[in-house]
Write a structure and sequence with these properties.
The chain is of the alpha/beta class and 230 residues long. It is built from 7 helices and 10 strands. The two termini are 21 Å apart.
Amino acid sequence: MSLVELKQVTKDYRMGEISVQALKDIEIDIDKQSFVSFVGPSGSGKTTLLNLIGCLDKPSSGEVFVNGTAVNTLSNKEAAQFRGQYLGFIFQNFNLLPVLTTYENVEYPLIMVQNIKANERKKRIMHYLDAVGIADQKDKYPSQLSGGQKQRVAVARALVTDPKLVLADEPTANLDHDSAFKIIELMRQMKRDFKTAFIFSTHDPKIVKEAEIIYTLEDGKIVGKKIGAS
């Protein structure tokens, strides 16, 4: 069974009296434990596509399956529960809570989404902080971390709920080139170690080369698919 499958998906947005088609007849089939990149210019539909897969939006037509569930049919409450159980997210602006420490930022989804008991939370948090190489920063606040360190915290937070799939929208956009490569390699390592699938978007052609499968989008359509890094 595929982890992600989109069938004849379109997405339209209303802008006043004008209808804008953000996605057109998208067909995608992504296996478990994949490392996939969506690439294309701004406005090509990358973020919209990630939002549909992440149950943050619904298609205007077509079907979206994630882990065997037709997520386009879920209610808002059901979608939130599904995200908490199966999905992790990494954002280009990190989205760390400034009043929480590194440890507390990673702990947050375990309290708010999965309600994991304290002893299990501590075990998981330290496991993933150690895995991303930032356990020694656990008591620091985001303002005390570099951009690369913040993104490592975001990776740990995305993985701590043991998701089947992590979605990352331009996860390296605010990092220097060396830090960006380190984060992509870290994501690949997490994929190998924890059998988690990653789907990310990026504008950087050097980063794209690190993906195993690359989908190219233009004007809301998939215009290319190729095999990348192994």
